[in-house]
Design a protein that fits this description.
Bound molecules: S-adenosylmethionine
Largest sheet: 7 strands, mixed
Number of strands: 7
Number of helices: 6
Strand order of the largest sheet: 3-2-1-4-5-7-6
Helix content: 25-40%
Radius of gyration: 16 Å
CATH superfamily: Vaccinia Virus protein VP39
Shape: globular
Structural class: alpha/beta
Distance between the termini: 42 Å
CATH architecture: 3-Layer(aba) Sandwich
Protein backbone atom coordinates (compact mmCIF):
# COMPACT_ATOMS: atom_id res chain seq x y z
CA UNK A 1 0.00 0.00 0.00
CA UNK A 2 1.12 3.52 -0.83
CA UNK A 3 3.30 5.04 1.92
CA UNK A 4 2.93 2.00 4.20
CA UNK A 5 6.56 0.90 3.81
CA UNK A 6 7.58 4.30 5.12
CA UNK A 7 5.43 3.74 8.24
CA UNK A 8 6.83 0.23 8.72
CA UNK A 9 10.38 1.55 8.42
CA UNK A 10 9.67 4.40 10.86
CA UNK A 11 8.19 1.91 13.37
CA UNK A 12 11.22 -0.36 13.02
CA UNK A 13 13.76 2.48 13.37
CA UNK A 14 12.00 4.10 16.34
CA UNK A 15 11.10 0.83 18.13
CA UNK A 16 7.37 1.43 17.84
CA UNK A 17 5.52 -1.89 18.11
CA UNK A 18 3.02 -2.45 15.30
CA UNK A 19 0.91 -5.48 14.42
CA UNK A 20 2.75 -8.30 12.63
CA UNK A 21 1.91 -8.89 8.96
CA UNK A 22 0.15 -12.22 9.55
CA UNK A 23 -1.97 -10.82 12.39
CA UNK A 24 -2.83 -7.78 10.27
CA UNK A 25 -4.00 -9.91 7.35
CA UNK A 26 -6.16 -11.96 9.71
CA UNK A 27 -7.62 -8.77 11.23
CA UNK A 28 -8.46 -7.38 7.76
CA UNK A 29 -10.01 -10.70 6.77
CA UNK A 30 -12.24 -10.68 9.88
CA UNK A 31 -13.32 -7.09 9.13
CA UNK A 32 -14.26 -7.97 5.56
CA UNK A 33 -16.01 -11.27 6.40
CA UNK A 34 -18.03 -9.80 9.29
CA UNK A 35 -18.89 -6.58 7.42
CA UNK A 36 -17.40 -4.40 10.15
CA UNK A 37 -18.16 -0.70 9.71
CA UNK A 38 -17.30 0.78 13.12
CA UNK A 39 -14.07 0.14 15.01
CA UNK A 40 -12.67 1.16 18.37
CA UNK A 41 -8.93 0.62 18.49
CA UNK A 42 -7.13 0.71 21.84
CA UNK A 43 -3.50 1.56 21.09
CA UNK A 44 -2.93 3.67 17.97
CA UNK A 45 0.87 3.95 18.05
CA UNK A 46 1.64 5.79 14.79
CA UNK A 47 -1.64 4.89 13.08
CA UNK A 48 -0.38 1.93 11.04
CA UNK A 49 -3.16 -0.59 11.77
CA UNK A 50 -5.87 2.11 11.77
CA UNK A 51 -4.77 3.23 8.29
CA UNK A 52 -4.77 -0.36 7.02
CA UNK A 53 -8.28 -0.95 8.38
CA UNK A 54 -9.64 2.33 6.95
CA UNK A 55 -8.20 1.58 3.51
CA UNK A 56 -10.27 -1.60 3.30
CA UNK A 57 -13.52 0.29 2.79
CA UNK A 58 -14.37 4.04 2.71
CA UNK A 59 -17.50 3.31 4.80
CA UNK A 60 -15.41 2.15 7.79
CA UNK A 61 -15.17 4.61 10.71
CA UNK A 62 -12.48 4.21 13.37
CA UNK A 63 -12.00 5.79 16.79
CA UNK A 64 -8.47 5.06 18.01
CA UNK A 65 -6.93 5.82 21.41
CA UNK A 66 -3.30 6.62 22.21
CA UNK A 67 -1.79 7.62 25.55
CA UNK A 68 1.60 8.81 24.26
CA UNK A 69 1.53 12.43 22.96
CA UNK A 70 4.42 11.94 20.49
CA UNK A 71 2.86 8.84 18.92
CA UNK A 72 -0.55 10.54 18.87
CA UNK A 73 0.93 13.50 16.93
CA UNK A 74 2.72 11.17 14.52
CA UNK A 75 -0.48 9.17 13.96
CA UNK A 76 -2.47 12.35 13.24
CA UNK A 77 0.15 13.41 10.71
CA UNK A 78 0.25 9.97 9.01
CA UNK A 79 -3.54 9.78 8.81
CA UNK A 80 -3.75 13.27 7.26
CA UNK A 81 -1.04 12.38 4.74
CA UNK A 82 -3.08 9.35 3.68
CA UNK A 83 -6.22 11.52 3.32
CA UNK A 84 -8.07 9.43 5.94
CA UNK A 85 -8.96 12.08 8.55
CA UNK A 86 -12.69 11.77 7.74
CA UNK A 87 -12.58 8.04 8.53
CA UNK A 88 -10.21 7.93 11.52
CA UNK A 89 -10.51 9.96 14.74
CA UNK A 90 -7.49 9.76 17.03
CA UNK A 91 -7.90 10.57 20.73
CA UNK A 92 -5.00 11.41 23.05
CA UNK A 93 -6.18 9.62 26.18
CA UNK A 94 -5.70 6.74 28.57
CA UNK A 95 -8.19 4.18 27.24
CA UNK A 96 -9.59 3.65 30.73
CA UNK A 97 -10.51 7.36 30.90
CA UNK A 98 -12.38 7.31 27.60
CA UNK A 99 -16.15 6.83 27.87
CA UNK A 100 -17.74 6.62 24.42
CA UNK A 101 -21.50 6.44 24.02
CA UNK A 102 -21.28 4.70 20.63
CA UNK A 103 -21.40 0.99 19.86
CA UNK A 104 -18.71 -0.64 17.74
CA UNK A 105 -18.74 -3.71 15.50
CA UNK A 106 -15.10 -4.36 16.40
CA UNK A 107 -13.04 -3.45 19.45
CA UNK A 108 -9.40 -4.07 18.59
CA UNK A 109 -7.39 -4.25 21.81
CA UNK A 110 -3.69 -3.60 21.24
CA UNK A 111 -2.41 -1.49 24.18
CA UNK A 112 -0.90 -2.58 27.54
CA UNK A 113 -1.02 -6.39 27.50
CA UNK A 114 -1.41 -6.68 31.29
CA UNK A 115 -4.60 -4.58 31.12
CA UNK A 116 -6.53 -6.60 28.53
CA UNK A 117 -9.24 -7.74 30.93
CA UNK A 118 -9.75 -4.18 32.24
CA UNK A 119 -10.08 -2.80 28.70
CA UNK A 120 -12.54 -5.55 27.84
CA UNK A 121 -14.72 -4.83 30.86
CA UNK A 122 -14.46 -1.06 30.46
CA UNK A 123 -15.78 -1.14 26.88
CA UNK A 124 -18.29 -3.98 27.13
CA UNK A 125 -21.22 -1.52 26.93
CA UNK A 126 -19.78 -0.27 23.64
CA UNK A 127 -19.76 -3.62 21.86
CA UNK A 128 -22.55 -3.82 19.26
CA UNK A 129 -24.89 -6.85 19.60
CA UNK A 130 -23.04 -8.78 16.88
CA UNK A 131 -19.71 -7.17 17.65
CA UNK A 132 -16.44 -8.82 18.65
CA UNK A 133 -13.15 -8.08 20.35
CA UNK A 134 -9.84 -8.82 18.64
CA UNK A 135 -6.79 -9.31 20.89
CA UNK A 136 -3.21 -9.45 19.63
CA UNK A 137 0.06 -10.61 21.29
CA UNK A 138 -1.43 -13.39 23.40
CA UNK A 139 1.77 -15.43 22.97
CA UNK A 140 4.04 -12.45 23.63
CA UNK A 141 6.84 -13.86 21.50
CA UNK A 142 6.53 -17.32 23.05
CA UNK A 143 7.26 -16.05 26.59
CA UNK A 144 3.70 -16.76 27.81
CA UNK A 145 4.06 -20.51 27.20
CA UNK A 146 7.72 -20.68 28.15
CA UNK A 147 8.62 -18.01 30.76
CA UNK A 148 12.17 -19.41 30.95
CA UNK A 149 12.85 -17.64 27.61
CA UNK A 150 13.16 -14.35 29.52
CA UNK A 151 14.91 -13.46 32.77
CA UNK A 152 13.18 -10.07 32.91
CA UNK A 153 10.94 -10.00 36.00
CA UNK A 154 8.40 -7.48 34.70
CA UNK A 155 8.08 -9.37 31.38
CA UNK A 156 7.45 -12.58 33.34
CA UNK A 157 4.78 -10.87 35.45
CA UNK A 158 3.10 -9.46 32.33
CA UNK A 159 3.18 -12.88 30.67
CA UNK A 160 1.58 -14.46 33.76
CA UNK A 161 -1.24 -11.91 33.42
CA UNK A 162 -1.65 -12.67 29.71
CA UNK A 163 -1.83 -16.38 30.58
CA UNK A 164 -4.58 -15.76 33.16
CA UNK A 165 -6.43 -13.60 30.61
CA UNK A 166 -6.19 -16.36 28.00
CA UNK A 167 -7.55 -18.90 30.48
CA UNK A 168 -10.39 -16.58 31.49
CA UNK A 169 -11.60 -15.81 27.94
CA UNK A 170 -11.48 -19.52 27.07
CA UNK A 171 -13.40 -20.64 30.16
CA UNK A 172 -15.91 -17.88 30.98
CA UNK A 173 -19.37 -19.29 30.12
CA UNK A 174 -20.57 -15.82 29.00
CA UNK A 175 -17.97 -15.56 26.21
CA UNK A 176 -17.46 -17.16 22.82
CA UNK A 177 -13.72 -17.30 22.21
CA UNK A 178 -11.65 -18.51 19.28
CA UNK A 179 -7.97 -18.55 20.16
CA UNK A 180 -5.47 -18.74 17.28
CA UNK A 181 -2.05 -19.37 18.88
CA UNK A 182 -0.47 -20.10 15.50
CA UNK A 183 -1.42 -16.78 13.86
CA UNK A 184 0.94 -13.82 14.23
CA UNK A 185 1.83 -13.36 17.91
CA UNK A 186 -1.28 -15.20 19.13
CA UNK A 187 -4.72 -13.81 18.47
CA UNK A 188 -8.13 -14.22 20.09
CA UNK A 189 -11.50 -13.27 18.64
CA UNK A 190 -14.05 -12.94 21.42
CA UNK A 191 -17.76 -12.21 21.42
CA UNK A 192 -20.16 -11.93 24.33
CA UNK A 193 -23.08 -14.34 24.48
CA UNK A 194 -26.51 -12.74 24.13
CA UNK A 195 -27.91 -11.32 27.36
CA UNK A 196 -24.44 -11.27 28.96
CA UNK A 197 -23.47 -7.64 29.21
CA UNK A 198 -21.78 -8.37 32.53
CA UNK A 199 -18.72 -10.58 32.77
CA UNK A 200 -18.23 -12.92 35.75
C1 LIG B 1 1.30 -2.27 20.12
S1 LIG B 1 1.13 -0.54 20.06
C2 LIG B 1 -0.23 -0.30 18.97
C3 LIG B 1 0.08 -0.70 17.55
C4 LIG B 1 -0.98 -0.37 16.55
N1 LIG B 1 -2.26 -0.93 16.91
C5 LIG B 1 -0.56 -0.90 15.21
O1 LIG B 1 -0.58 -2.13 15.04
O2 LIG B 1 -0.17 -0.10 14.34
C6 LIG B 1 0.40 -0.18 21.62
C7 LIG B 1 0.15 1.31 21.87
O3 LIG B 1 -0.75 1.42 22.98
C8 LIG B 1 -0.42 2.60 23.68
N2 LIG B 1 -1.01 2.49 25.03
C9 LIG B 1 -0.51 1.81 26.11
N3 LIG B 1 -1.34 1.94 27.15
C10 LIG B 1 -2.39 2.70 26.73
C11 LIG B 1 -3.57 3.17 27.37
N4 LIG B 1 -3.84 2.88 28.64
N5 LIG B 1 -4.43 3.92 26.65
C12 LIG B 1 -4.17 4.22 25.34
N6 LIG B 1 -3.06 3.79 24.69
C13 LIG B 1 -2.18 3.05 25.37
C14 LIG B 1 1.10 2.63 23.64
O4 LIG B 1 1.59 3.94 23.86
C15 LIG B 1 1.40 2.09 22.24
O5 LIG B 1 1.62 3.13 21.33
Amino acid sequence: MNGMNELENYAHEHHVPIIMEEGLQFLLQQIAEKHVKTVLEIGTAIGYSAICMAKLDPAIRIDTLEIDPERYAKAQCNIEKQGLSAQISVYLTDALEFFPTKQYDLIFVDAAKSQYRRYMEHFIKNLAPNGFYFFDNLNFHGFVDDPSLTQNRSTRQMCAKIKRFREWIQNDPGLNTCFYPQIGDGIAVVSVKKGQNMIE
